[in-house]
Amino acid sequence: MAICEACGNDYDMSFEVHAQGAVHVFDSFQCAIQTMAPICEHCGTRVIGHGAQSGDHWYCGAHCARQEGSAGIVDRVMAGTSA
Predict the structure, then answer these.
(1) Model pTM above 0.90
(2) How far apart are CA 43 and CA 49, in angstroms?
(3) Does residue 16 contact residue 22 with C-beta atoms inside 8 Å?
(4) 1, 25, 60, 73: which has the fewest C-beta neighbours closer than 10 Å?
């Protein structure tokens, strides 16, 4: 058994996440997300999907990125426009 680094639970079904040369141990996806997911710099929500990155800044989507002054970030291309 291994101890979850987020909540301290000693669980027989814990799992490892290998990221950027480090190994993390969790007992649930909830603990993994709470520990590892970046936080949107505009609204404060956890970025669970792809999100939007502008330089060194992370946002949950294009709307929040634009609210913080990042230009040129879009969630999708509208039909009939070239990408």
Answers:
(1) no
(2) 15
(3) no
(4) 1
What span, in angstroms and rounded, lies between the C-alpha atoms of 41 and 52? 11
Residue type, 49: G
Determine contact, residues 58/40, Cβ cutoff 8 Å.
Answer: yes
Are the C-beta atoms of 34 and 46 separated by less than 8 Å? yes
Helices (H), ranges, the chain:
29-36, 62-67
Query: Torsions phi, psi of 23, nearest 5?
Result: -115, 125
Q: What does the block give as tokens for 74? A: 């879009």
- Distance CA(62)–CA(53), nearest Å, equals 9
> How many CA atoms are closer than 13 Å to the CA of 67, on its beta-carbon side?
13
For the chain, which residues make up each domain, given as ranges? 1-36, 37-76
Round to whole Å and give the CA distance between 8 and 31: 10
